[in-house]
Amino acid sequence: MCGIFAAVDIDNGLSHENLRLFRKSVDVIEHRGPDASGEYCYNTRMSNVQKEEFNLYLGHRRLSIIDLSANGNQPLEIGDYVIIFNGEIFNYQSLLDELVKDGVSFRTKTDTEVIIGIYKKYGIKGFDKLNGMWAFILLDKNQNKLIVSRDRFGIKPLYISRVGSSIYFASEIKQLLQYQKSLKADHSALYCYLKQSIRDYSENTFFENIKQFPKSNSLELDLQSGHEHFESYWDYKPIENLSETDYIDQFKALMDDSVLLRMVSDVEVGALLSGGLDSTVVSLLANKSAPSLRTFSVISKEQKYSEEEFIDIAAQEGNLKNYKFTLDPQNFLEHLDKTIYHQDEPFTTASVVASHLIFKHIKENFGLKVILSGQGADELLLGYLKFYFFYLSRLKQERKFLPLFANIFSAVLQGTIFNQFDLSVAKRYIPFLNKRRVDYLRLSGIDEDISSRGNMTQRQILDVSNYSLPSLFAYEDRNSMAYSIESRAPFMDHRLVNLLLHTPDHLKISKGWTKYMMRKHLTYVPDQIRWRKDKKGFETPEELWLKQDFQGYLKGLKQESALADIGAIDASRFTDSYNQYLNNSSIISKKEIFSVFIAERWARLNF
Predict the structure, then answer these.
(1) 423 confidence band (pLDDT: 50, 70, 90)
(2) What is the C-alpha separation between 120 and 321, in angstroms, rounded?
(3) Which of 70, 199, 327, 416 gives 20 to 30 Å between its CA and that of 565?
(4) Of 210, 216, 157, which is closest to residue 32 (Cα–Cα)?
(5) Is the peptide bond before 75 cis (omega within 30 degrees of 0)?
(6) Greatest CA separation found in the chain?
(7) Three-class secondary structure of residue 264 per DSSP
(8) Backbone dihedral region of 11: left (phi > 0), alpha (psi from -120 to 50 degrees) or beta?
(9) How far is the C-alpha of 195 from the C-alpha of 201, rounded, in Å?
(10) Using an 8 Å Cβ cutoff, are 168 and 176 in contact?
(11) Within the chain, how many helices (H) and strands (E) appear?
């Protein structure tokens, strides 16, 4: 896990004067790679390396996890290939063995060099063989091409910005800000964030002219002509002729293998433990291969929001070493702006700050470099409450009334679903409520249709690709890397993702339960956690803070607001909506208020 930066200008070239800016772009993300740094300047027209006259720059900050020796420093030059790489290829050892059998020799023991080996043998189509998370830029001197690639699900960040004849690539947005002719907010991204509390649903960022590099894609840039060719190297594949038993057996086997692969490291691996089902599964499986596994948890002083009871059950029954961090409003306020700085963009929940603080705690008190998380399970196993209602809607449309009423009856009888329903949150997925005019919003834009569409698999793919996981991965990457920690998500092994997206719905939702297959068949998880009737995750007392601790700040926007200054909101009308929220309006959700609160802090930091 590292940080990368690249600049290319085929038409006008680059010079020694640019190096100061480029090095600043590399060093501003020292937190992503404190162990080593390097750069490479290349003139593609003269085919030589020099720092006086060049048109390609590659810069890298290294966080050493695999092959801790200097051999793993980057940019890594192997023959006619030079690469900068952020991420991990978890199956690199099996790929290395395969290439060695074919007569390929290796200079290092890194997964970075394996990428070069795969590219030399298979071209960009070979990236489908990689099991991992990545963003890399590879110079192929033979063909005078620059190859840029990002992993299947966008777990690792990569941004692109075009300014004049120059193209810039970076791991974080902050690296690209100094090249913009003028810094402006992207109105379409800000509109959907303030109106619908969503982000990362497209390639747009919150800054004009800075885009996300598309996930599951590779770019071939011809360094002679400037021609660009984007190509997708992977897509979801239908699964046929599997019995229910096959689905269950493959799920269990792939879950085990995915965690085992993500334990590969030359440094200690730990895990986040929230007390929920997903993180407990990951922690227990990881503990099988590393019995001294250390786990880390956030707890709240407010008992209503604390998961401590379930964290203790998982730790005691699973024989896990667990370390807790207590979150309170003062922690939140002290680190809010630092979290926004590292995130670069507004976020939608206070749990992002809680996540930032636990990574800070892990780094400062334990010094770990690698952490496992349960990210992705809710999207793949229909864990969110919304999926239950989407499922009921599909059963109704398909006139499957027996399972429809059986699921409703079971949910009511067991108290698993309907007691968690919240109209102010659910309205995001109810078309006629989602179209409600937001009086204080001055931006105009087009609402994203985030209501249920198509079958359940199609809806899940939308959440994996657009509406849920992209923002969660961004949050976790920036928070962990702010403290030089690599976060790994075993549920996002592409083999497991493809299997679970095509697993029949009734295996994932059944008898009033979401994630039914995991609850029923992963029996090594304590029953109190497997059959929990509530869902919290990294819960924070957000509503309490918005109504009490942050009330003065939010009411003060009527007098001074950066969002109002850039034309995003009418501060006076927002105050009216906030007062309705304080009076417990069922229409105004805490997400709406929190989105304005965070966007205001972000705007003050950037404009």
Answers:
(1) very low
(2) 44
(3) 199
(4) 157
(5) yes
(6) 75
(7) coil
(8) alpha
(9) 14
(10) yes
(11) 25, 20
Residue where the block lists tokens 């309907």: 418
What is the number of alpha carbons within 13 Å of residue 29 lying toward its C-beta? 34
Structure tokens at 565: 């200054």
Phi-psi region of 368 (alpha: psi -120 to 50; beta: other; left: phi over 0): beta
Question: CA–CA separation, 58 vs 505, rounded Å?
Answer: 46
Q: Per-residue pLDDT tens for 60-92?
A: 999 999 999 999 999 999 999 999 999 999 999
Q: How far, in whole angstroms, is CA 458 from its chain's centroid?
A: 20
Strands 269-272 and 294-300: parallel
CB 603 within 8 A of CB 185: yes
pLDDT tens digits, 347-368: 999 889 989 999 999 999 999 9
DSSP state of 416: S
CA distances to 198, 336, 478 from 62, rounded to whole Å, are 32, 27, 15
SS3 494: helix
Lowest mean pLDDT among 218-222, 377-381, 541-545: 541-545
State mean pLDDT over 588-602: 94
Mean pLDDT, residues 211-223: 97
Q: How far is 449 from 69, CA to CA, in rounded Å?
A: 49
Average of per-residue pLDDT across 235-251: 94
Show Cβ contacts of residue 124 under 8 Å, excluding neighbours closer than 6 positions.
147, 149, 218, 220, 231, 233
pLDDT of the residue at 275:
92
Tracing tokens 């800016």 back to the chain, one arrives at 21
Please state the three-class secondary structure of 498-567 as a single string: HHHHCCCHHHHCECCECCHHHHHHCCCCCHHHHCCCCCCCCCCCHHHHHHHHCHHHHHHHHCCCHHHHCC
User: What backbone torsions phi and psi does residue 239 show, to the nearest 5 degrees?
Assistant: -115, 130
Rounded Cα distance between 40 and 60, Å, is 9
Query: What are 359's two structure tokens?
Result: 């990574």
Q: How far from 539 is each of 111, 278, 349, 353, 440, CA to CA, in Å?
A: 36, 15, 10, 11, 28
Percentage of the chain beyond pLDDT 70 is: 94
Q: From 208, 162, 164, 163, select the one nearest 184 (Cα to Cα).
A: 208
Whether 210 has a pLDDT exceeding 50, the answer reads yes
The 269-272 sheet, strands edge to edge = 321-327, 294-300, 269-272, 370-372, 486-488
Bridge-based pairing state of the strands 294-300 and 370-372: unpaired
Distances in Å between the Cα of 2 and the Cα atoms of 168, 325, 402, 471 are: 17, 26, 52, 19
Give 241's pLDDT tier (boundaries 50, 70, 90): confident
| E strand segments, 227-376 | 228-232, 269-272, 294-300, 321-327, 370-372
Amino acid at 29: I
Q: Which domains does the chain have, with CATH numbers?
A: 2-158+213-232 (3.60.20.10), 244-377+469-503+517-530 (3.40.50.620), 420-445+541-606 (no CATH)
- Helix (H), strand (E) at residue 8: strand 2-8
Which residues lie below 8 Å from residue 293, measured CB to CB, with a gap of 6+?
Answer: 269, 270, 271, 283, 286, 287, 320, 321
- Check residue 43 and give left, alpha or beta (phi > 0: left; psi -120 to 50: alpha): beta
Q: Rounded to 10 degrees, what is the CA torsion of 268, 269, 275, 278?
A: -170
Supply the pTM of this predicted model: 0.94
For residue 83, the model assigns a pLDDT of 98
If one counts every other C-beta atom within 10 angstroms of the C-beta of residue 79, the result is 10
